[in-house]
Design a protein that fits this description.
Length: 139
């Protein structure tokens, strides 16, 4: 079972915040709120942090997004699925921000991404059980 999904991305000073928001919205249902906070980079440059949290019924839509990855990307994800989990049964994945803005869902190869963290509830609560659960529903 999925407890929640958190998504986060950054809009750097050189980026249009509305475009970054648009990319993030690709992963969200219409009624989901995006929290925006301002931060500063190492050299004082402004960074806008955009975050959203999916609960309960909205988590299914996120699974549909994972399933929409290309067959090659799903197989690659399956091969290294264990590496995407921590010991608290959190699944981590990054999506390409530029592709998302263009309406295409792809796994990220760079740091310029939309980060997702999905909390899996498994009984007993062990990493192996969470991996098996996710493998069974997305692949």
């Amino acid at each position: 079972m999925i407890h929640h999904v958190k998504l986060r991305t950054f809009a750097h000073a050189t980026e249009d915040v509305s475009r970054v928001r648009c990319a993030l919205e690709l992963f969200l249902p219409e009624d989901c709120e995006i929290k925006t906070t301002m931060s500063k980079g190492h050299f004082g440059n402004p960074i806008t942090v955009l975050e959203a949290r999916l609960e309960k019924r909205h988590c299914k839509s996120f699974l549909d997004i994972l399933r929409s990855l290309s067959k090659d990307q799903l197989l690659g994800l399956k091969d290294e699925l264990n590496r995407h989990f921590d010991d608290d049964c959190n699944f981590y994945v990054r999506f390409d921000k530029q592709s998302a803005y263009e309406g295409d869902i792809k796994l990220a190869k760079t740091e310029d991404s939309i980060a997702a963290k999905m909390k899996i509830i498994s009984y007993p609560s062990r990493r192996e059980n969470a991996v098996m659960f996710l493998e069974g529903i997305i692949i």
